[in-house]
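Dataset card, provenance and construction

Sequences and ligand SMILES were collected as paired inputs. For each pair, a complete structure of the chain with the small molecule in place was predicted and serialized as C-alpha cells. The example below shows a pair involving zinc ion. Curators did not alter the output after generation; any descriptive sentences attached to a record were derived from the structure itself.
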Amino acid sequence: MERRYQDERFEKAEPAHIRAYQLERVGKMVAHAWRTNPFYRDHWLARGGKRGKIGSFEEFRDKIPIVRKKDYVADQAAYPPYGKRLARVIDGKEPFYIFNTSGTSGQGVEVHAMTERERRAGYAVSAYCYRWAGLEPGDKFFLCFGISMLGGGRIELYGLENYGLTVFPVGNYDVNRKLELMQRFKPQAVMATTSYIGHLGAVGVEKGSLHRPKVLFGGGEGASFSWFEMQQEIWGAPFFNHYGATQNRVDLIYPCERGIGTRDHPGMLHNIDPGFFLEVLDPETGRQVKDGERGELVVTSLIHPDFPLIRYAMGDAAVYHTPNYCSCGRPFCGIELATVGRIDDMKKIKGINVWPDAVDEALFVHGGVDEYQVVLSRDATQSDVATVRLMAKPELDAGAVEALCEKARCALREKIGIRFEVVSVPQGGIARSEYKARRWIDQRS
Ligand SMILES: [Zn+2]
C-alpha cells in the first residue's frame, strides 16, 4: 500500500517522540489557561485541580479535572452570551470565528470561538485528511454541509480551501439539485454527514444517475462496517469517515490509506497527535482503557491557546487502539472504525446493554435492508419489547422480504443476545434520515 504522507516529521517519528512532543504542549496549554482563562481556573479549583508542572500524562490526569458540555452551558448561562471561557470575545479588539453547536443532545447550545491564528493552526490538522484520502490541489470537492452558525460546514470549508481544492458549497440545495450539480460538475470528492451520503446514493440510484467520485467523505456520526461497505459498492469509491466536533474547531481523527479496512480487521481512525492529545477513558474508573477496549473520548487541543480545550469529555464512546493496530506504521493512536457512538445512546433492553451500532451491523450485513427503525415498548406484564420495523430494498419480492426478516431475527438474537420482533414495512414507510440518523424510538417511559 502506497503511503501518502502529509508531514513526515511526525508520521515517521517514533511513538515516544510524539508523546514527548504532546506532553510539552499539554504543559504549556495548561499553564497558559491557569494564567489567562478564568473559566478553566475556577472550574479546576472547584474540583480539586492542582497547579504546577506537568511531568507525565498521569500527572495531567491527576491534576486537571475533565470538563463537559454542561459546564460550558452553565458558564454561558451565568455570563451570557459567551461565558467567562470566551471573555476575550467581549473585549472585541480583533476578529473572531463564532460557532454554535446544534443542540441535538438536548442539553443546550454551546458557543465556540477561535482566533485567526487558531484557524491557521487547524489547517495543519485538516490537511492530513485530504492527503491520506489521495486528493490533489485543484480537485473538485462537493461540500454538502450547510454554511451556517454551526461549526460543521464552515470549519471544513476553511480547511478545504486552504488545502487548494475547488470547493462547491452545495449544502443549501435539496437532494435532487445536488445530484444534478454533481452530474454537471463531476467532482472528484463528495463530503456530507455520514447518513446523508447514504441518502444521496439511494436517491441517485433511484433516478438512474449517480456520478461516481474518486472519494467519499462522511462525518458527524458513525455507522456499521456493513453500511460503509454497502456505500462503497453503491458509489464505487472509498469511504473516509472522519471524527470531530464543534468543540475541536477542526476534525481531528481520520482514516489512513487503509480506509474502512476489512471485516476481520476494521480500519483505524488515527488521531492527529501533533494537534490533539486523545484520551479514551473507562467511564467507571476514569482511567485510560487498553488497546481494543471501549471508552469515552476526552480531547485536549494542542493548537488552541486563545480559547483552550482541555480534557473536554466529548460524550462519545469508541474502541481505542494504540498505533501498532494499523499496518500503515504511523505513530498516531486512534479509534476503530464503526465503533463510535454517543455514550448516552446505549440502551438497556431486558437488562442487557445494547449499542445501536451493533444492531446496525446485525441488520445491514444482509444486503437487502434499505432502512429500519427500532421501537422499544412494554407489554402487559411490563417486559421490554424491541420491535424492528424493516424496510427492504424495492427490488425484493414478498417471499424475499419474509426471508430477510427471518434472517434479521436470527442475527439479532445471535449478536445481541435478546429477542427482537421484526416486521416489514412497505417502501416509503420509513423516511431516510437527512441529518443525524434517528432510528430509535423509546416508548417505555
Ligand atoms: Zn493507519
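Derived descriptions for this record:
The radius of gyration is 22 Å.
The chain has a mean pLDDT of 93.
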